[in-house]
Amino acid sequence: MKEKIKSIILIILVINSLILTWLLIYYSPYNDHTTPLEYQTRLKFGKDLELRHVLKPKHLIIHSGDNQHYLVANNNILFKSLEEEMKNWSFHNFYPVYRVLDWEDIMENKEGIEIVFGPGLSNSLLMQIFIIPSDIIPLESINRVWITTDNNDNMIAYFLSDQMDKVYAAKPSVTNGMLNHYLNNINDLKDYSYYWQQEKEKVMVKTAFYLPNEEIKMNIVKKFYTPLSDDDFIQLLFIDPALVRKVYDKDYRDHILYTDGSRSLQVYPHQYYINYFYHSINDIPNPNDLQKDLQGAVRFVNQHGGWEGSYQLDSLEHLEQSNQSVLYFHQYLEGYPIIDEKEKYGEIVLNMSGGIAHAYQRAMILLDQNLATEEVLIFSGTELLRLLEEKGIFANDINLVELRYQVKRTKDYLELIPVWHVNYQDSQIFEIPAFQSGV
pLDDT, tens digit, for every residue of 252-297? Predict the structure, then answer.
């Protein structure tokens, strides 16, 4: 009898062992969301960043109250000083503004600081930059914060959504004395003029773009570059590179497809960029949590090569059909974004939902050491508008004007060239060299 019991126990242990072995081999919860770093060390070509590093203002405008305006680029010493101080700025007593504000008076006669963001930010993301109570009214797509004074010379802050045409007011911790201190630090800055943007159907918010009154200096930069290979990205992005097979796409001869069955990597060898995506991700929680998506995007890039330079979130969009957030990060050089629509230099794009990456696009080229720099004088606003009028583009047609670096690739180096990027009428795009020898 005792031997029979022993035999039964032994059989149970063997069956248990077989079940556990099967589970270890064939079952891995959330296997589709496991990153390569959980298995082995991968290629690392950039640094790890935190959310606060990529979530920052695009630029600041200081208004001196005498119709003088000073644009502060994000590589300026004053910008960096103000960015540090912003962490201690608090706002309270939020309320929606229903009356139309006198924007011309605010622009021309009120001292103030205008903080401009690339994307529209929600409460949770604004809390990463300022001190804001958690129980405030919902803020949607806030892309500007304007700190100024009201008609009684009391400090007031306006949180503006250009896209939603909404204005919220709040009481800031910034004092009149602090504002005067900031105004005393504009001596080295070039002054700008404002131009009202194309009106469209806005009622509450009147928006402007700014152009320099005089020529300003920028550099043409030539940089060596390091190309990344298909194999680099296969090793970087797939859990088991040995399972990856190469497929030539029959319909699109300009790219190569690699897949392991659950993930795919499209390589565009002529344009030097890749598109990596999951075939399907199910049961994604909290699909509309933008903060979670942004944190997930930063973490994904940290785990898949890192950020090879200074990047920030410049824009975002929401895809209704798939319930995904598309986040656009751009690399900045000397305070200006590197944006090349065709070959994706300086751009990282992630499709996110529930903090999980669905797709990832980036260039296959890393900027390396400087080869040469050449200082050029950038057109003043008056000269730029004259050149645009020759092309049939007038100031009241313009939605946005900004300086960017456009990339020209040669065999041995990349040349980064300053251009004026113009968005006009119904989101039409025009780019023009920003200096005389470039015309």
Answer: 567 899 999 999 999 998 888 999 999 866 555 555 788 999 999 9
Please state, in angstroms and as integers, the Cα–Cα distance from residue 278 to each residue in 84, 266, 271, 359, following that order.
Answer: 38, 12, 22, 6
| CATH number of the domain where residue 413 is located | 2.40.128.690
Expressed as residue numbers, the domain containing 262 is: 227-363
* 3-state class (DSSP) for residue 337: strand
pLDDT at residue number 287:
57
User: Rounded CA gap, 426 and 160, in Å?
Assistant: 22
- The predicted structure's pLDDT at residue 180: 93
| pLDDT band at 396; cut points 50, 70, 90 | confident
Check: CB of residue 338 under 8 Å from CB of residue 331: yes
Q: Residue 9 CB: number of other CB atoms within 10 A?
A: 10
Q: 389 and 351 share a domain?
A: no
Instruction: Pick the more confident residue, 416 or 427.
Output: 416
Chain centroid offset of residue 216 CA: 25
Euclidean distance between CA atoms 432 and 421, whole angstroms: 7
The reported pTM is 0.86
Examine residue 10 and state whether it is found in any structural domain, yes or no: no
Residue 436: helix, strand or coil by DSSP? helix
Averaged pLDDT of the chain: 87
Q: Within a domain: residue 89?
A: yes
> Which H or E run includes 51?
helix 51-54
What pLDDT score does 284 carry?
Answer: 56
Selection from 57, 80, 61, 378 nearest residue 191 by Cα:
61
Residues β-bridged to residue 123: none
- Do 278 and 378 share a domain, yes or no? no
pLDDT tens-digit series, residues 46-87:
999 999 999 999 999 999 999 999 999 888 999 999 999 999
**CB–CB of 354/286 below 8 Å?**
yes
* Other residues' Cβ atoms within 10 Å of the Cβ of residue 281: 16
- The Cα 433–Cα 437 span in angstroms is 8
In our burial notation (b when 16+ CB lie closer than 10 A, e otherwise), range 162-200 reads beebbbbbbebebeeebbeebbeebeebebbbbeebbee
Sign of CA dihedral 97, 98, 102, 103: positive
Whole-number Å distance between alpha carbons of 223 and 183: 37
CATH number at residue 343: 3.30.310.160
Task: Check residues 337 and 248 and name the one with the higher pLDDT.
Answer: 337
